[in-house]
Structure formats: structure tokens, C-alpha cells
Amino acid sequence: MALFGTVLCVMIVAPLSLSQSQPPRTSAEQNMNEIMRRQQEQTDRLIARQMTQLKERAKREARRAVDESRRQSCGATPSQWRSIRPRLLAVESLHEEMRARLRPQVSYDLSSGPQPVTNCEWAWKPLVDREPNEPLTAAETTCQRLRDMLGDEQTPIESIWEQVELLRAQRKAAADQTPDAEEALRKVATLRQEAALMAHGWLQ
To answer: Rounded distance, CA 2 to CA 105, Å?
Structure first.
């Protein structure tokens, strides 16, 4: 019995002595851990910033490539393009305003079996390359507002038709301005360039 008590005491005292033998973490170790944590956070932020910069650069390069392909497609020299480009963008903007409408935004997942479409909603989406953070035009904003109204069964039909008439007026205003904008584009283009602009649908 005495032997059993001795063994029991040893079993109890041994873990206590082991735990007491482990020195507590010093303030120097805590400081080192805090420094390492901050360094890791700084590294994570740096990587995130670099990824954002890479994505922005890729977008800029893509827009530059598209712009260059448009210049070459209408046979303009860099000097001629400096006069043609702003007038072409003005024409395109009016064309977009005339055709402002909602378009389906569809998401696919080919691994989802017989029904790959995961999401589909109607939203405004540009047909032409837009500058980053460029705001919606008046007609595009009206399209978005109409989408929200049509999705709400409580919206009075009178309110919906106010937006319909507004959109119709905005499209007409753009159509009325288009001939002058197209004429301004023709004035800085050669006959060959005008033919190319016609073939691409940039001139009527």
C-alpha cells in the first residue's frame, strides 16, 4: 500500500515538475513573434498590391492593343489617328446611347453536369471598350432603373412608363446628334479610311 502511494505521488509530481521546468515565454520572444507577424502582414499587403498593379497593367495593355488594332484596321497613321480617334469615340458613344439596352449576363460552370448555366440576369453591358470607372450614360442609367422597377411587382405601371418615355427620348436625342458627329469624323478621314469605317459599322 505504501508503495502504491509512493508511485501515485511520483505520477502527480512528475508532470508538475515538467511543466515547471519549461521556462515561460520571455518578452523578447513575444516581441520577435510580433515582429514576424507584422512582417508577414506587410508581405501579404505587398503581394496583393503587386497583383492589383499587374491586373491594371494587363487591362491597360489590352486597351492599347485594341486601340492599335482599330487604328490599323482603318489604315490611319499615328498622326492621323490622333484626329480620328476622339471623333470615332464620340460617334461610338452616340451609337451606344441609341442602342442602350439590357443584355443577359450569363455565368457558366461546365463541371456542374447537364445544367452548366449557374446564373443569368439582365443588366447593362457595354459593347465597346470603355475607359475605367467611366460612368453610365443617361440612357444606360435609365435602363438600369427600368430593370429594377420591372423586377419589383409593387412598382406602379405609371412610374415604369415614365422611364420608358424617358429612355425613348434619350435614344432619340442621341440619334439626332449622330449625323453631325459622323460628319465630323468624315472630315478627318480619307476616302479609303471612310470606307473602312463604314465596313466596321463606325459610320452609316
So the answer is: 83
